[in-house]
Write a structure and sequence with these properties.
It is a single chain. This protein has 3 helices and no strands. The protein is an all-alpha fold.
Length: 65
C-alpha cells in the first residue's frame, strides 16, 4: 500500500513510483545493491544523481506487471 508506506517513511518527496507484482523483491534487491549508502537505522539512502537514475532504471526494468 503506497499511501501507508509513505506515511511510515514520511519522505520529503517521491522520485519514482512503479507498480509491480514483485515489489518486495525489487525493494530487497535495491537495498542489497545500495546497502553501503544506507543511512544507519533508517530506510533512507544517500545517493548521487547518477545512482538515483540507476535506481529508476532498475525499478522500471525489473518490475513485473
Amino acid at each position: 500500500n503506497l499511501l501507508r508506506r509513505f506515511n511510515q517513511l514520511k519522505p520529503d518527496e517521491g522520485l519514482n513510483v512503479v507498480r509491480s507484482s514483485n515489489f518486495e523483491k525489487l525493494e530487497k534487491d535495491l537495498h542489497k545493491k545500495f546497502k553501503e549508502y544506507r543511512i544507519s537505522q533508517t530506510e533512507y539512502f544517500r545517493l548521487s544523481k547518477n545512482q538515483i537514475e540507476l535506481v529508476n532504471i532498475e525499478m522500471t526494468k525489473g518490475a513485473d506487471f
